[in-house]
Amino acid sequence: MVEQAEIRVVHQGGSKITFREPVLSSDSRFLLCASGHNVKVFSTATEECVQELRGHTDLVTGVLLRPSNHLQVYSCSADGTVRLWDFTDGVLIKTYVIGYPICSIYASASHDGVVFIVMPAQRDKRSDVFQLVAVNLPQCADQLVETTDLSAVLGDVSSNPVAVAFGRSGEYLASAKGLQLEIYFFKKQKSYRFFLKEDHKNGGRNTFTCVACHPKDDCVATGHEDGKIRLWRNFNHKKEYTYSTLHWHHSAVSSLCFTPEGTNLLSGGVESVLVQWRYGQESQRDFLPRLGAAITHIAVSPDGALFCTSHSDNKITVIQSCVKVSSIIQGLVKGENVQTDLMVDPRSKALVLNGKPGHLQFYSLQRDKLLFNLDIVQQEYIHESGLKQFEVVKAAFDGSGSWLATVEERNPKAAEVEVNLKLWAFDEQTQCFVLNTTISAPHEARITAMCFDQAASSRTTMLLSCSRDGHFKAWQLAPPAHTDDEGPSWSCDFVGAYHNLLPECCCFSADGSLLAVSFQEVVTVWSPSSWELLVTLSQPPGDIRDLCFGRLSCSKYLLGTTTNKLLCCWNLLTCSLEWSTSTDVSLLLGDPLSENMAAFCLQDRSTDLFVFKPSEPRPLFSQKAVCSGRVTRAVFAPREAMLESCEESSQWLNRSQLYFLTSLMDLLTFSTKAEEERLMASSKQLVIDDSVAMTPFYLLLGKHRHQQPETEEQARGRSAERPAVPQSSAAVRELLQTPAHVLPSTSFLCSMFVQSLLISVTDNREENKLSEEEMDSEKGEEEASDEEMEPRVTRPEEALSDSPEMESVAPALTKAQVRELRRVRKLDHSWLAGLLDS
Amino acid sequence: MASFKPTKVPVYPKLGEKVTQDTLYWKNYKAPVQIKEFGAVSNIDFSPVAPHNYAVTAFTRIHIYGPCSQEPVKTFTRFKDTAYCLVPVRTASWVFGRMRRLGGVHVLPFTPKPLPDPFTGGRRTPPTGDIPNAAELTTYQEHTDYIRCGVASKLNRDLFITGGRYVKVWDLLKGGQPLVSLKNHHKTVTCLALSSNGQRLLSASLDRHVKVYNTTSYKVVHNFDYAAAILSLALAPDDESIVVGMTNSILSIKHRKHTEESMEIMSQQRRRPSYRVFVKGKNYVPKQDDYLVSKPVKEHLAKYDRQLKKFNVSKALDTALETWFRRRKPEITVAVMKELNRRGTLKNALAGRDEEQLSRLLHFFIGNVVDTRFAPILVTAAEMILDIYKSVIGQSALIDRQLLRLQNLLETEINLERELLEVLGMLDTMFATSITRKEVPYSDIGRSNGLAQGEASSSRPELQVT
User: Fold this and answer.
1) Would the pLDDT of A807 be above 80?
2) Is residue B166 in a domain?
3) What are the UniProt keywords, alphabetically (chain A) (predicted)?
4) What share of chain A is helix, strand, coil (3-state, %, to 5)?
5) What is the mean pLDDT of residues A203-224?
6) Is residue B393 part of a domain?
7) pLDDT score at A795
8) Is there a single domain that holds both residue B226 and residue B113?
9) Is beta strand A489-498 parallel, antiparallel or unpaired with respect to B463-465?
10) Residues B308 and B251 occupy one common structural domain
11) Which residues pair with A245 in a beta bridge?
């Protein structure tokens, strides 16, 4: 029982999917990408994640289709292993232990059984020098294989995976680092090096950024820091090499890729424009502009039908033949810093934070999926590095989720900062937020804090904003001044200040009767109804960092943290300090559904968590060293269903879940063991369903399942119920879970399979009766009900034997004819019974 | 692939008066017809029956005009002294009171029978007289000046309104209690009239204004300006026309525009052949079982947006500086400048211009730089222009003159702001002394710039705790 309530910190989704180049499967139906410690398999058509290959214990640094088997994939990781997976089934086939952290992985069709990996040269992990090593993968049957057969190919290579490429049918290897391009010929065992001058005449920066090799021709394309693309030819001579230069990009080319036939060259960079160059006629270019964010990788499917580009905002775009964006796979966008607080949308229960530039993102924590982006700034984003753009810096929801306030800022460093305060109303009809009021320059300086009165209804709610100009302003929804057709808008209701001090944080009490605004080291408590200053509280020295009112039974307390490493709790009834404790609290947070408060304390460069009630001296829960670095963003997300845990230490997790962002932008959460087990069980269930959705068996069965109702309907002229999918049967599940190549022969399995199907269809009594009527007495009960399922299973054989009859079944047939036909079919299938007996 | 987001042109709150139903209604009159009368027009009255003729007294004459013609239908000239007043006795005829200044009675409005008729006199008290009994019923002593006019409410039988120095509304049921005193005119109110439905009250005054009040809230909803002090005002039944007589002996008649006429003009405009080409095939309604092939809707972009999309910054600025935008929609020009500044290319767009283009730019700055809504970006742009063209200053007399004008303008503006701040400081001290509480009223100086939406209604006292 004690163990069941154990709480641990877990990663909760939102990992980066654009860390490495995505890989398209050979039939262009799946897209594989490294995502944290896992490899995710997405469907290119539906954008859904269909498989997650779990097993690596560190960051996955490369994904590569196995050249000899297009249904298998290699993945390498910083944990020093290369794993071979069957990605359609999500099965780990083999693990090769290398022993050193791997940066990237390459292979070519002409080198069978060999993969090339980039790893630190000095055999220690801290080194900056990397080498390219050929690994001979041993052929043995074991799951876990130790590989020792390593041979260095190139000494000094870049750790960036786009800086190495295999040439025409694996004859040579091109590697770029700094200002040097090195081409290694496997046959001659010789490498040529080409150098560019440090600084070109026009002041260009010549550093290589990426390399791509033409698949059919001896041509190497290199991208450069200054946006140029060079096409190198004749490079098997030391002196007589040539290159031509293409220039369209205005800043560094981040990725280059040839199409499989070599007719086109694709390039992308920070401009977020995919450029398609015709190979041979480089003056002809096609553009696909406004892809959303800087392109980091470009990949092309082996049949050339699909391109995919991954972007710096954790997004993968799938493009159909360079003209149409067919799908977008979007992960949680986490920039260098999250400027808005983490929030939970009261309506959709989604996590809300600033996403791609000028947008707020709504991220479903339960489904680990980005729901949508709300465009706040509504301006064309100029993809140019160093340009100051509008950023969403603050956002707040009111209690019912019907109002959203956002603050956008531009040029925060300069003397004149441009600030806009926008208020968005939730539109019930379109189910999204609609801009209601824009207030340009609501304050003369940056806004430090903003909060809604959570208690009031959506009509009377009040927004409070504090600014560095020394004022706080209260905003209220005002009816329109004249009887126009325009609706109500927000306007300033009150401006307050206190001794010319800077207001830092503000907080409404749970019932909305009190308002606390902290002015540096003084907390002022106001009555929002009369705008009277009720009391001031102070605990100098040290400015107030966080303010929080207690809730429910603890609503008489006001908690504050100071920069002087003090956590204070004031009693509002006596207006005196109730207790205080000396900890360096970096974040204080109240659970909106209970009295609990969470305090993240920084100690010895790692963060401790305390969960406590303001009225009780003993913390409910404490955990040392939750993560390293300072935690500045966290949120209590209400649970969908209340957890029933009786263990005292985990009761605080019953109503809501605590999510927090570490300094490395990882989204972490706490989960109890019981919850994890439940989650595991449900996810297993989910995986089965999903694997059904994608295995070849499903394709076989699924096709027939779709066809069958049609034919039945046509044949019988009445609406037949679609039979239930035989998923409940353990045998079928077994069959569907196991990869096809490890199963025994089909004839061996057939009896078991058909048997399992029979059990699942017994509810189709109506049809059974119908068929019983004209059934021959010597035929078994079994055969009759078989009739329902047989066309599904044995359709391919049927197609050989009696396809003409099947095809000629038309809706015009009379009932008698249909019966006749069915009898013929039944007779035909008697051979199957023979097979079963054998 | 997201589509291009066009430049956001902010909707600034209108500085002038808001367009309400009332302004639309009272503006819907044709240009006034002006007739020169013999002398100052002292009284006008409409006939309540069908052709709605009206009689006008001017000096010793009385003219009767038809509803449409500008020529008098009939003229009476048998008076020896100035005619002041018209008293309708029966529905279709007038009795022309040739009054000498006996007791100075000027105005005789009648409430419908059998009410006691208010009988206002040129005294400071409006007596209420009963005509059948010819006895004075009540006297209300409230006015401090001569009462010039009076009118009885059409909606409430117990209300009547008098006008003198101020317009006052009296409630007869409450024993003649004055309900409202309207002090919107700064000179004596000479004439009052009620609109046909009784919902609006019109008051004409010597200050050359006619004001329209809402009779429920007694707020001014519209205002007419005239050239001279107004002596008389009359409103035709159904508000078909407003007739105003002034001291400069001009009679001004405004007729109501009719919606059919304006619609006719509109429909004539629509029937142009280019419009027909434009709508061709677009108004086709698909039948029930038609298969609809949807065509991607081509988003319309303004010309400057199309140029911005192609990063043609100078051309975009040129387009935004075209005469129409500059004159009619300066906010668009400013929005394009703002967008260029955000993209960091405003300097490129401003550079490389010849004398004519530069003078056009400077002209725009001179016209708009003192507008608080546009000032921040225009000041930045003007500084950039000085930076770019400082090497060529002195080569063109035109540009130099404009630069000097801009400089003078900015200097006056700065002086003005300084004076305003001084006034604000004085007001602050006055408010501070007037409130004896601990809290001192506090007025935010800087809210005058930029906070156009927020400041309108923030009239509550702002407190600063000391």
Assistant:
1) no
2) yes
3) Nucleus, Repeat, Ribosome biogenesis, rRNA processing, Transcription, WD repeat
4) 15, 40, 40
5) 86
6) yes
7) 44
8) yes
9) parallel
10) no
11) A230
Q: Which pLDDT score, from 0 to 100, does residue B426 have?
A: 94
**Subunit contact B462:A495, Cβ cutoff 8 A:** yes
Shared-domain flag, residues B251 and B336: no
- C-beta separation of B429 from B411 below 8 A: no
Write out the residue range of the structural domain in which residue B329 sits.
Answer: 303-428
Q: Do A491 and B344 touch (CB under 8 A)?
A: no
Q: What is the CATH number of the domain that holds B97?
A: 2.130.10.10
User: What total of structural domains would you count in chain B?
Assistant: 2
**Pair A769, A819: CB distance under 8 Å:** no
Q: How many residues does chain B have?
A: 466
Q: What is the pLDDT of residues A438-491, one digit of tens each?
A: 888 899 888 999 999 888 777 788 899 999 988 999 999 887 665 555 678 888
DSSP A17: S
Same domain, B238 and B364: no
Regarding whether B334 and B247 lie in a shared domain, the answer is: no
Residues B312 and B180 in one domain: no
Q: Are A371 and A364 in contact (CB under 8 A)?
A: yes
> What three-state secondary structure class fits A559?
strand
Q: pLDDT digit string (tens) for A46-88?
A: 888 888 888 888 888 899 998 888 889 999 988 888 999 988 8
Cβ–Cβ < 8 Å for A661, A600: no
Give the model confidence (pLDDT) of B170-184 as tens digits.
Answer: 887 777 778 888 888
In a domain, B244, yes or no: yes
Inter-residue contact A233 to A276 (CB < 8 Å): no
The three-state DSSP-derived secondary structure of A418-468 is EEEEEEEEEECCCCEEEEEEEEECCCCCCEEEEEECCCCCCCCCEEEEEEC
Is the CB of A491 less than 8 angstroms away from the CB of B458?
Answer: yes
Q: Which of A481, A547, A487, A493 is nearest to A520 (CA)?
A: A547
> How does the average pLDDT of chain A come out, rounded?
79
pLDDT tens for residues A711-759?
444 444 443 344 444 444 566 666 677 777 777 777 777 777 777 667 5
Best to test chain A binding among B1, B15, B17 (most A CBs inside 10 Å): B1
A499: nearest CA in chain B?
A: B466
Statement to judge: residues B236 and B310 lie in one domain? no
How many cross-chain Cβ pairs, A to B, lie less than 8 Å apart?
A: 101
Chain B residue at shortest CA distance from A386: B344
Q: Tell whether B280 is covered by a domain.
A: no
Q: Do B4 and A475 touch (CB under 8 A)?
A: no
Provide the 3-class DSSP secondary structure of residue B111. coil
Residues A401-418 have pLDDT tens digits of 889 999 998 876 666 788
| Predicted local confidence at residue A764, as pLDDT | 47
- Tell me the mean pLDDT in the region B264-271: 62
Partners of A438 on chain B (C-beta within 8 Å) are: 10, 453
**SS3 labels along A76-130:** EECCCEEEEEECCCCEEEEEEECCCCCCEEECCCCCCCEEEEEEECCCCCCCCCE
Asked if A331 and A17 touch (Cβ cutoff 8 Å), the reply is yes
What are the strands of the beta sheet with A343-344, ordered from one edge? A343-344, A351-354, A359-364, A369-375
Q: Do residues B225 and B326 both lie within one domain?
A: no
B→A interface, C-beta within 8 Å: 1-8, 10, 18-21, 308, 339, 342-344, 376, 439, 442, 444, 446-447, 449-458, 460, 462-466
> Mind telling me how many Å the CA of B416 is from chain A's nearest CA?
21
**Owner of token pair 């992985």:** A105
DSSP B245-295: EETTSEEEEEEBP-HHHHHHHHHHHHT-HHHHHHHTTTTPPP-TTPPP-PP
* Residue among A92, A87, A89, A39 at smallest CA distance from A61: A39
A444: nearest CB among B308, B446, B456 = B446
CA A33 – CA A41 distance, rounded (Å): 7
Q: Which residue of B has its CA nearest to A410?
A: B342
Considering only A174-183, A532-541, A787-796, B240-249, which range has the smallest mean pLDDT?
Answer: A787-796
Which residues in B lie closer than 8 A to residue A437 (C-beta atoms)? 453
